[in-house]
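Troubleshooting entry. The earlier prediction with zinc ion gave an output that would not parse, so I re-checked the input for stray whitespace and re-submitted. Clean input:
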Amino acid sequence: MTDKLYLKDMYLKEFDAIVTRIDGNKVYLDKTAFYPTGGGQPNDTGRLISGSGEFVVSDAKKDGEDVMHTVENPSALKIGDNVHGVIDWDKRYAYMRHHTAIHILDGIVIKSYSNGGIITGSQIYADRARMDFDMPDLNKDLAQKIIDDTNDDILRGRRVIVKDLTQAQALAMPSLVRTQPGVELIKRLSTVRVVEIEGLDMQMDGGLHVLNSKEVGKIVMNSYKNQGAHSKRLEIRLE
Ligand SMILES: [Zn+2]
């Protein structure tokens, strides 16, 4: 099982590890700070540096309990090699800021605007983030108001707290069991990682965040599309 350093320190940019398995251009390490694609957050990219050279990591994916790194031309790497990993931090930090922005916006929507509607999905990119809503009341003006409220809230400097709950603790949290799929998911997990925007929002989440809302900075509307009463798509980006 790969030791997932990115879950322990979301700000870790460099790390040392040992190569444990090589399968074509897929390289496995005993530990890693490379976030693998998941939960709407894209994988990290970066470099592995060893005594025999420098190798580009172009992708990272989950493989069971392991993280599988796609490495360009890894033929000079051997099992047992010590490597120094460096992630592309500017891109990762943009993912973290967008990710936290989405959770704050979710919290604002649920607190003040959902009117029975729900957020059906989201996707993070380095330069923007997308959210989909099944929210018949939503329109472009309301979306702008939600963004304005989100920006006001970001400035409050809320702490972002990541913690592991037991299944029983998670099932007792009203915000985590809003939907039946959420309940079903919790019932399959022994520990439930949650991300709390203190005083505003709590979600089951495996992704990476900034530790204070102020680090998000200001968000602006990138685009708004009405794709039907049950499908509204909002994109935001960092200013
Ligand atoms: Zn999330």
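This one parsed fine. The mean pLDDT is 95.
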